[in-house]
Amino acid sequence: MSEPVLVRGEISRSVYWSRILVPLCLLGTVALLLFGDRTAGILLTGLFGLIWIGVETYAALQRSKQMWIRDTGDGFDVINRKQEFHVADSSVTSLALKTKRNYAGGELKSIFRQFVVWSDEEDGPITLETILVDKLPDPLATLTSRLWKQVLEHTKSTLQAGSSFDGDGWRLDAKEFTWGKPAQQQSIARPDITACEEFDGQICVWRRGQDDAVAKFPTNGRNVCLLPQLLQPPEKPAGAAAEEESAGLGRILFERRARRTPRVLAYTGGGLLVFIGGVLLIVEEIEAKLSGVGMIAVGVLLMVWAYSMAYSVFRCRERGVHKSGLFGQQELRYVDVGTFTYSATRHYHNGVYVGTHIGLHFVPLPEIKAAKINYTTTIMNEDSSLDELRNFIAKAIAVRMAARLAAGEAVPWTQNLTFLPNAIQFRPQGFIGRKNVQTLPFENYGGQNMEQGVFYLFRQGEKKPVMNEQVSAPNFFPGYFLLLMLQSR
């Protein structure tokens, strides 16, 4: 039996420090009241007194909410300030999972996770809250994975027995998947479901013959987290993959359009400039007329730019990338991508984080007569959807790289790294520039690590890395996933 784990009502370190520092400040203000400026002492004593009352009230409320979980192996004990009761694994019928990433200065510091459990022995859900910090073990890993497996297996047995299984806004049985409000319900036969995956922060379901997802659900809904495993499509018959490959770029996984706010501002600013410029044209002075012409020209350009943004769309699809604008569109299949680069650069102004510049760059193979495709945007902190997209694209290109490697070819990774059939060729960092090419046989491979945007390659038996490379280097992520594929074999 494990030790109890606090899953609700955690009191942060800042509150603990406040409970120490605020009373000390209060003592100082009392001393000021008695021996110094009486008016300032009264004001500060009242202020810090109220702060102290607020801090203690908050701490008391948090303590009243505190709940602990103790894993018993076949269930878990729920312990709070009022009672203690046991929940058996077999009684758990539904799950929900919600995560929130916490950032500081654009860097991920922790992940707040809510793992919600419904049991047929309890009236309401039981919420387990955990803050996951990098390099620290998950205290509920064993319990959550066991409950996940138990509910999934029970659900599959229920469906096989002819019963249905439901969640927030949907119902699933052996024949079809139904979703929507009663008056607007839609359904799809299970054989027509081609995929169910998480993309762009939602669980998406695709129907055969349609590129857009037909249904999307918030990831934190009841039992929604189980859908990707419950709605796995049957294996495709031989030759179906090749047929789909020739049919197009496949289902839409990710889409970004120009933001509405810049468009509105551009239209407003452009219209205002045109109006002021028109007024200046009426004025008799030649300087005013010239200024008016210039303002009208700038205003028209702003409005044209705003109009073009309405046509600006960037999509990543199952088998390729698509970008369209006012003057046309571009498409590039992943099998035709020679170099895929993903970069994320954090920007600071006077030491304050102001955003992260994201760039996705697709350069076709030399023999493919197509233009390169670029997509750039600026976000605050990170976008997990872009991370998922980066990994999906990199894995798709890594599969092609793996086929070339299996055929005995040397496969370039980055400018300083190359895969050979039995080794990794690299140019280590020197005092000035890079050193001569060295080779690391796969049997001497000692692992890899990635920290602060830098990749480190290790030789077996050595603590220091033999090679480092920036993760923003062209084609880094496809090669990285190829390395993970080779590592798992």
**Sequence of strands across the biggest β-sheet:** 1-2-3-4
- Radius of gyration over C-alpha positions, nearest whole angstrom: 30 Å
**Major sheet size, sense and barrel closure:** 4 strands, antiparallel
What fraction of residues sit in β-strands?
A: 35-45%
| Span of the ends, CA to CA | 36 Å
- Give the total of beta strands: 28
Sum up the overall morphology in one term: globular
Give the domain tally.
Answer: 5
Helix content: 25-40%
Which runs of at least 5 residues are low in confidence (pLDDT < 50)?
A: none
Q: What structural class is derived from the secondary structure elements?
A: alpha+beta
Mean pLDDT: 87
Counted by DSSP, the helix tally is 9
Q: Could you explain the architecture of this structure?
A:
With 489 residues, this protein is α+β, with helices and mostly antiparallel strands. The protein folds into five domains: 9-65; 68-159, Roll (PH-domain like); 164-234, Roll (PH-domain like), CATH 2.30.29; 259-309; 330-489, no CATH class. It has nine helices and 28 strands. The chain has helices at residues 13-35, 38-65, 141-160, 227-230, 240-245, 260-282, 286-309, 384-406, 476-488; strands spanning 5-8, 67-71, 75-80, 84-88, 92-104, 107-119, 126-133, 165-167, 170-172, 176-179, 186-189, 193-199, 202-207, 215-218, 252-257, 313-317, 320-325, 328-333, 337-349, 352-364, 373-379, 411-414, 417-420, 423-426, 438-441, 445-451, 454-459, 467-470. The chain has a four-stranded antiparallel beta sheet with strand order 1-2-3-4, covered by helices on one side. The chain has a four-stranded antiparallel beta sheet with strand order 8-9-10-11. Strands 15-16-17-18 form a four-stranded antiparallel beta sheet, with helices on one face. A hairpin with a 2-residue loop joins strand 12 and strand 13 (202-207). Helix 1 packs antiparallel against helix 2, helix 6 packs antiparallel against helix 7 and helix 8 (384-406) crosses helix 9. The protein is globular and about 70 Å long. It starts with a strand and ends with a helix.
